[in-house]
Amino acid sequence: MPGENLSRDEARERAELLSVDGYEVALDVRSAVGESASEQRTFRSVTTIRFRSAVPGAATFVDLIAPSVDAVTLNGRELDVAAVFDGARIALEGLREENVLVVDARCAYSRTGEGLHRFVDPEDGEVYLYTQYEPADARRVFANFEQPDLKAPFRFTVTAPDDWSVWSNGAEESREGQVRSFARTEPISTYITAVVAGPYHYVTDTYRRGELEIPLGAMCRKGLAKHFDADDVFLITKQGLDFFHDNFDYPYPFGKYDQAFVPEYNLGAMENPGMVTFREEYIYRGKVTRAAYERRANVILHEMAHMWFGDLVTMKWWDDLWLKESFADFMGSFSLAEATRFTNSWVTFANNRKAWAYRADQLPSTHPVTADIRDLEDAKLNFDGITYAKGAAVLKQLVAYAGREAFLEGARRYFKRHAYGNTRLDDLLSVLEETSGRDMRTWSRAWLETSGVNVLTPAVTYDAAGRITELAVVQEGEPLRPHRAAVGLYRLTDGELARYARAEVDVTGGRTVVAELAGAERPALVLVNDDDLTYGKVRLDEGSLKTLRAHLGDITDPLARALCWSALWNMTRDALMPARDFLSLVLDFAGRETDIGVLQMLHAWARSALTHYAAPQWREEGGRLLSAGALKELRLAGPGSEHQLTWARFLAATATTDADLQLLEGLLAGTARIDGLDVDQELRWSFLEPLAAHGRADEAAIAAELARDDTASGKRHQVRCLAARPSAAVKAQAWAQVVESEALSNALVEATIAGFVQPSQRELLAPYTEKYFAAIERVWADRSIQIGMDVVRGMFPGLQDARPALEATDAWLSAHESAPPALRRLVLEARDDLARALRAQACDAAADRAPTAG
Predict the structure, then answer these.
(1) Which end of the chain is more exposed for a tag (fewer CB within 10 A), N or C?
(2) How many other C-beta atoms are found inside a 10 Å radius of the C-beta of residue 610?
(3) Smallest Cα–Cα separation from 342: which of 430, 259, 239?
(4) For residue 636, how far is the Cα from the chain centroid?
(5) Which of 114, 186, 303, 642 is catalytic?
(6) Is 807 a catalytic residue?
(7) Is 449 exposed, middle or buried (0-12, 13-18, 19+ CB in 10 A)?
C-alpha cells in the first residue's frame, strides 16, 4: 500500500502545474466472462488524456495501478514502459504547453470492491461488473491524475459481451457491435466516474418538472429481480428531485439518473453523477421494518444531495471532505423529513447517526470536521462518524444559528458561484456570511476547526414552594462552544410525561442562565438540547434521572424520548451508569417504544452493553435477563407487526439458554410457531447463526440451509454461520482464510470475520491476541487498504476484555512507532474501545458491591 499512496503536497504541486482538458477511456471487458487459465483476470484499458502544463519542459506523473502496461505515448513519442512505470505511477518528463498522453494497459478485475469489481453469481453463473473508486481507485481501471481538483470531461467507450447492458455517467450515444460509446460528461473528478456492466435487470421511469425531463433507471442482479421494489425507489427519487429543485434553484446538472444496486459493495452507496451505485442489501429479500425503508430512502437522498454538494462543486483536497459528506448527511435527513413519508427522520438522526458521531469524537483519533489529511490513507480513514454525522449535526446547529432561509440561500449562491469547480472552507463561509449577516469565521473556528464533544448539564435550584429560582446550563469540554439550544421542562400528568415549558437560548461559556424558565413549577424532567438543535452530550440532574427510571416510557414525544435514551447510553459508555442499570431500563421500557428505528438502536446498545460493559461475573445472568425479556416482548407484540419481527431478531441475537435455542430450532423446523411471525429465508439465517455459535447446528445443517437458499446472499450467510461454530479447528480455518489468504472476496472476508467474533467464545478466541499483533503490519503492507481496514478492525481482540489484552496492545504500539500512521490509528481506536470497556466493567462491578438499603 505505501507505494500506492499520494500525499497532499504532491497533489498540490501537480494541480499548480497541470490543467486537464479531457479524457477518452476505452475499456474492453469481454475477458470478464468465459474460462480463464490465468490466476488473475485482466482487461484492456486504453486512456487518452489531453492536458496542459503551466511550465513547458516540466515533469510530473500520472497514476495507474495495473499488472502491466503495453505502451505509453506522450505527444507522439513512445516511452520506455520499464523505465517510466513503477506499478503505481507513470513518470512523464519534457511536458509541452499542450500534451496528449496515451496509455495502453492491462488492468486487473477486483475482488475487494476497489476498482472494477467482478462478481460471479453462484445462483446462475452470470458475471456482473461495477466500479467503485473513492477516494482514489479509478487508477485501478484507467490512467489518470487521481486527485479531486483536476476535474475534466470524460468520454467512455466500453466493449462488452453482446448480451450485456453497459452504463456510465453519460447516456449511451451509440453502439456498434460490442462497442458502446457514452456521452461526454461535464467536468467531474476521477473518483466519481463510473461503469456498470452485465446482464442486470433494469427498470426505467421519467422525472418531469416543467420543461425539465430526467430519464430514471434502476437495476439489480437478475437473481434479485423478484424482490426489487423499483416503484418505491423511483418514488423517493422523484420526491428528492422535487425537494432539491425547490430549495437549490439549480437544475439537476448531469442528464440521466441511474441507480444500480450491486453485489459485494464496500460502502452504503456512491454518488457517481448519473450512475449512483448502492449495496444490494437495500433490496430486501424478506420482511423488514419501516426503519429499513427509511434507511434506504435516506441513502437515496444522501447520494442525490451529492449531485450538488460534491459532484457539481467539489472539495479541492480531502481536508474538506466534509464539504460533501457532512452536507449530504444533513440534507438526507432534512429532505427525508420534509419531502417523504418518513417525517420522523430527525428522531433517527438524534438516536442513531449522532451516536456514531459521539463515539468517533471521543476516540484518540478525533479530528476537526475540516481535517488535516496528509495523504490518501488518511483520507480513507476519515470517512467516519465525524465527517458524516458530527458534520451533519453541526450543520443542523448552523441552520438554527443562521436561519433556514439564510442557509439555503447560501447554498444556492455557492452552487452558482462554483459550478463545476473546486472549493475550500472559506468559499462556503463567505456566502453564508453574505446571506446570514453572522460572523461565520468565529462560528467555524468553534465548530469546524476544533475537535471534541461538549457536555451540557442542567443545574436547577428551587424555592420553598417548589418553583425554579434559577436554571442554568453548565458546559464542559474544550473548547467551550456557542450552542443554540432549547431547554424543555416536562411534567407527569395522567400517566403522560409531556413538555409544559420550553426556552431557546444561546449557550456560551461554562455556565448560561436560562432566565425565561425562572418561576416555572418544579419539573419531573429537565431536558437540555430539547428538539436536538445542537451537538453535545446531555447529562441529567438527579431528579430527572429518577423520573426516567420510573417513567421513561411515558414520554409522549418520540424525539424527546430518543434524546433521553441517547443521554442514558452516553452515561453508560462513560462509566457513569452501570451497564446493568441501562439494561434494566431497556427491559422495562423498550417494549413501549413506538419508533421502530429507536427500538432497533436500543437492541444494538443492549447487546453492546452486555458484551462489553457488563461486569464479567454478571454477564451470564444479564444474558438470561435479556433473552427472557426478548421472548416476553416477542409474545406480546402484535401478530405480523414490525415490532414482532424486531423482537424475534433480538431474541436470536441474545439466545443463550437451552429453552431459547430449542425455540429457535422449533421455529426453523416448523414444530414451533408464534402467531403472525413469518419465518422467511432471511429470518431463518438469523435463527441459524446462534444455533451454529452454540454448537447446535453443524456443517451439514448449514449446508442444508444453503441448499434452500443457494444464492449470493445465502452464500454470505453460510460463510458467517460456518465461522461461528465453537471449535478451535473452525477458528483456525477462519483465521487462515481471512489473514493468511487472499482467496475470499471482500464480502466473504466481512462475513467470515462476523462469524469468527462471537461473544460466547472468548476462550476460543484468546489464542489469537498474539497472532493478531504478529500479523497486522504484514496484512497492512500486502493487502488492499479496504481489506486491511476490515482485518485490523474486525479481528482486534476486543472480546479479550481484560488487562492482558490492553497490555498487549500497548506493547505493539510502543514497539511499532514507525508503523504507517493509518494502521496505528486503527489500533489506537480499538485500544480506546477496550479501555472504555474496562472502565465501564469496573463501574458495573461496583454496583454488585453497593450497599442495599436496610
Answers:
(1) C
(2) 22
(3) 239
(4) 33
(5) 303
(6) no
(7) middle
